[in-house]
Design a protein that fits this description.
- Homotrimer.
- InterPro entries: Ammonium/urea_transptr, Ammonium_transpt, NH4_transpt_AmtB-like_dom.
- The chain has 16 helices and no strands.
- It is an all-alpha fold and about 425 residues long.
- It folds into two domains: about 5-380, Ammonium transporter fold (Orthogonal Bundle), CATH 1.10.3430; about 405-435, no CATH class.
- Helix 2 crosses helix 3 (about 100-115) and helix 4 runs antiparallel to helix 13 (about 350-380).
- The longest helix has about 30 residues, at about 350-380.
- It is globular.
- The protein starts with 6 loop residues before the first helix and ends with a helix.
């Protein structure tokens, strides 16, 4: 083994990578429970396909573009196909092999485009979605990861702090979702039909898996089983709990009820916000980050009705807004004594770090938002991004995958033919109501 190799850190990072991988199916469950019955399988597949497409692209060129030494904008191409990497070659400044670091970062690359899918529920062609994430990963995610985390990336050199992915993952995916939303049509019945979650227990299972996997996402980003990882682990738990409480209090004041969907969404908002900031703030700061993010994201999800953009599952309100909140709050709550040396305004650092965070946030917002809009618009104008309105009414699961999430044949003692006849009648009634509207 090479000098400096750490078996303990390597084992820790392999476990962390596996935890982050679990987040993608967890996200699929989280999103899948939030859609209607007729779209659950498509929602699951939109996350699951990222495991296939991004893994192959990452191996071919993604890791090289994101993390090989290159220039301020793009990494080099020496590691195409993972060539030129020694079996026991260590990642710079760590005791772990490059292959372990590449595997860990691969899981980030997989879940980031999957996050976008929740904004597009019920209406996007599966083939168009697969093409979009392949292009988006190549043109947007891989370069942005280099900007933020590459040793020669311009945002990294500028001093923008993003411990585990507030800009590169959450703002990136959230504003990309907004770009695609603005490029394609809305769902049939948006702002008219309730479109309630069909399976809240599935949402809670997904949220639980996300929370569990996020410890690998955040604490693993320390790249070593050390004190920074310990603080990040604690801060992840603390901020998530505080955000869930903040969301629920806001919900109770605004709507008069505490809901399971609010608890799950609030937890995810806290996870998002602490991702960039958890390596810079104290546990008390993590409480503040979580509370602010929980309330801000809860307020933001309602803007889609006021501003008329169809964000199906609140990706913009939770991931973009949560990522912005977490990234900017570093400029206020960074202690200079956790995982970063920079100090925020409340710890005597003035406004310098806040200014750097603003530059990072705005750069990713503009680049990812514009490119994502153009990609979606180009796909929509060529092969078509959305399914037909008839297919949406009848159900995207059946139209795109020839499957349904639940088998209702024989329910309530009826024969299969009778059930099919009832379903057919219901679809005709639904189409008539939509036509009359």
């Amino acid at each position: 083994m090479p000098h400096g190799f750490s078996a303990g850190d390597t084992a820790y990072m392999l476990i962390s990578a596996a935890l982050v991988m679990v987040m993608t199916p967890g996200l699929a469950f989280f999103y899948g429970g939030m859609v209607r019955v007729k779209g659950v399988l498509n929602m699951l597949m939109m996350s699951f396909i990222s495991l296939g497409i991004i893994t192959v692209l990452w191996t071919l060129y993604g890791f090289s573009v994101a993390f090989d030494s290159g220039n301020a904008v793009l990494g080099g191409l020496d590691w195409l196909g993972m060539r030129g990497i020694g079996l026991n070659q260590l990642w710079t400044g760590t005791g772990i092999p490059i292959y372990v670091f590449a595997s860990f970062q691969l899981m980030f690359a997989i879940i980031t485009p999957a996050l976008i899918s929740g904004a597009l529920a019920d209406r996007v062609k599966f083939t168009a979605w697969a093409l979009f994430i392949a292009l988006w990963g190549t043109i947007v995610y891989f370069p942005v990861a280099h900007w933020v985390w590459g040793s020669d990336g311009f945002l990294f050199k500028f001093g923008v702090i993003d411990f585990a992915g507030g800009t590169a993952v959450h703002i990136n995916a959230g504003v990309a979702a907004l770009g695609v939303i603005l490029a394609i049509r809305k769902r049939i019945g948006f702002k008219r039909d309730p479109m309630r979650p069909h399976n809240l227990p599935l949402v809670m299972i997904g949220a639980g898996l996300l929370w569990f996997g996020w410890f690998g996402f955040n604490a693993g980003s320390a790249l070593s089983a050390n004190g920074v990882a310990a603080v990040m682990f604690l801060n992840t738990q603390v901020a998530t709990a505080a955000a869930m409480l903040g969301w629920l209090v806001y919900e109770r004041i605004k709507h008069g009820r505490f809901t399971t969907l609010g608890a799950a969404s609030g937890a995810v908002a806290g996870l998002v916000a602490i991702t960039p900031s958890g390596g810079s703030v104290s546990p008390l700061g993590a409480i503040a980050v979580g509370l602010i993010a929980g309330v801000a994201c809860a307020a933001a999800v309602g803007l889609k009705y006021r501003w008329n953009y169809d964000d199906s599952l609140d990706v913009v309100g939770v991931h973009m807004v949560g990522g912005i909140v977490g990234s900017l709050l570093i400029g206020f709550f960074a202690t200079g004594g956790v995982g970063q040396t920079a100090k925020g305004l409340f710890y005597g650092g003035g406004l310098a770090q806040l200014g750097k965070q603003c530059v990072g946030v705005l750069t990713v917002l503009v680049f990812s938002g514009v490119v994502s809009f153009l990609l979606a618009k180009a796909i929509d104008k060529t092969m078509g991004m959305t399914i037909t309105e008839d297919d949406e009414v009848s159900g995207i699961d059946q139209a795109e995958h020839a499957e349904t999430g639940y088998d209702f044949t024989g329910v309530a003692g009826g024969s299969a033919k009778k059930v099919e006849a009832k379903v057919s009648t219901a679809k005709k009634v639904e189409k008539k109501v939509e036509a009359d509207a």
